[in-house]
Amino acid sequence: MFKAATASLASTLLLESTPQVAHSAGAINTIYNLPQSKTPRMAWTVDDGCSSESLRSYIELAIEHDLRFTFLVYSAMSPWKSQSKLLKPLVESGQIQLANHSHTHRDLTTLSFAEVKKDLTKCHNFIEKTYGVDARPYFRAPFGTLNSGVINAAAEIGYTKPIAWSGSLVDTQNQSTRRLLYHAENSFQDRDIVLSHSNNLVVSKNFDALMEIVNARNLSLVTLNDVF
Fold first, then answer.
1. Has this prediction a pTM greater than 0.85?
2. DSSP bridge partners of 46
3. Which positions ≥6 away from 96 have C-beta within 8 Å?
4. Which pLDDT value is given to residue 19?
5. Which residues contact 144 (CB under 8 A, 6 or more apart)?
6. Among the four residues 68, 100, 106, 217, which has the most C-beta atoms within 10 Å?
7. What CA–CA distance (Å, rounded) separates 211 from 184?
8. Please, what are the averages of pLDDT over each run of 10 residues along the chain (228 residues)?
9. CA angle at residue 173 from 167 to 179, to 5 degrees?
């Protein structure tokens, strides 16, 4: 009797913690670019969140300049909790969109089917509990590594739109301003999905110069939800 009750309880807890899929997703294709539009636009996406100071700087830039970003949440990192009070109103308004970047930031292609689901589910549940939003259907695999197993495992819990990128700021800690702006010149283009990170202050220290490129090209910053 005790074993049966325990098994039933475990099944209930698993059901409650795993995102439930309301409908079939259909074909799944990795997204590299925004759809065509008469308005020049790009999606500035921000991965990880390892640095509290860096994440806060992005949030403050969004508030000060009324910018739209998509943040890819690596939920094991504490800044997503410590900065939640400042970030949550922007998430609720849709100015900043949150998407799933996994809980442990491991290469998902090295994990089993069940482990991929577990890792993405932990991030999903964190976002839902902390920010009150459902991050589905968008996720970005750590390091951009995908295979059919990862895609199918993610789809089983409703993450049916893998997000890649068509441009990158390559914003590592030791990135020089000259190289950062070089990558921005190449990446800030109409329809591009641009990859950056909230792990250091390289971007925030050069934000004015980066926005000069955005404005000179008359680019509108949009979230993934804005256009898909």
1. yes
2. 71, 196
3. 59, 62, 68, 69, 70, 71, 87, 90, 223
4. 76
5. 164, 165
6. 100
7. 10
8. 40 54 59 97 98 98 96 98 98 98 98 98 98 98 97 97 98 95 98 98 96 97 97
9. 50
Q: What pLDDT sits at residue 46?
A: 98
Angstrom distance (rounded) from CA 13 to CA 205: 45
Question: Residue 39's pLDDT is what?
Answer: 96
Q: What's the number of CA atoms in the CB half-sphere (13 Å) around residue 141?
A: 27
What is residue 106's predicted lDDT score, i.e. its pLDDT?
98
194, two tokens: 């641009």
Q: Alpha-carbon distance 191 to 219, whole Å? A: 9
Structure tokens, 36: 């065509």
Question: What DSSP assignment string belongs to 75-143?
Answer: TTSTHHHHTHHHHHHHHHHTSEEEEE--SS---GGGS-HHHHHHHHHHHHHHHHHHH----TTEE--GG
For residue 28, the model assigns a pLDDT of: 75
100: CB partners within 8 A, 6+ apart: 72, 73, 120, 123, 124, 127, 135, 136, 138, 139, 140, 159
> Residue type for 67, please?
L
